[in-house]
Amino acid sequence: MKPEILQLNPILVPSINDKLDALYTMRRYYEQDDKDAYIREIGPRIRGVITGGHTGISRALMAQLPVLQVVAVNGVGTDAVDLAHARERGIPVTGTFGALTEDVADMALGLMLAVCRNLCSVDRFVRDGLWVQHPQPGAIPLARRLSGMRVGIVGMGRVGRAVATRAAAFGCAIAYTDLAAIDSLPWHFVGELRRLAEGSDMLVLCAAADKAEGIVDAQILQALGSGGFLVNIARGRLVNEPDLVQALQAGVIAGAGLDVFVDEPHVPAALRGMEQVVLQAHRASATIESRTAMGEMVLASLADALAGRRPENSLTT
Ligand code: 8YV
Question: Which fold has domain 101-279?
């Protein structure tokens, strides 16, 4: 009998789904109307879970899976998984570390360019036929130059470093904050987030959200200042969202590029109405290349754990 795997989110790569179906009895939770009844029925037999970084898995759900041997996160954020509970039970929780770095960093640069150069609002202006109605150059305000800006990076892990490398190629001066300075990096370390924001034109959030909820609040946005931009490709809850809305409404900062939000898929209506904000739908890793590499890592984690080996990317065992 094939092992039963509970899948909490869809995977959009057909070759990965084919491999999963060939090796396992896949239990697709997201397709079920009555999820509680479904778990009561199949939970006792589930040996592996596949989930997304943002979705994770609750302690309550894990507790209903008594023979669980692995939680494979199809992503790098493990902030939505109860790691302490997994450790207590000796269950490996794995991530797809390294598989999505380049695409997430590319998305950060895309948002940085889009907010500075008003790419989305001008796209709407042209699409809506407004250029023909208002052909005078003054109809569209001048934009800002990204090249040469002072870029402050919050969280200098794989993604932070990849963003720094890209921004440096645009001639940007790079500073960063993290738990401590990383000696091997050529960029300027700033210990305090407020000071980093003060010295940045563009603040880019690349940090894990495990212990950093709401670190970007009114005070930090004030420090970033009226010429400053915020880009978030990490987790929505790093930012105090009401403070961000207020800061954008009052011109405390110049604009924001956001891929992630506190309560996805709900994006505050105020943000949706702002021309100086560029919005994405948590898409930074959503390329065929990243998602295929991520899916292969999920398959490897399941195979290792179910064969009694420690998965290479386990955080808990
Ligand atoms: C993914 C993420 O979109 O890696 C993460 O932590 O949040 C995203 O890159 C997600 O995990 C896909 O399921």
Answer: Rossmann fold (3.40.50)
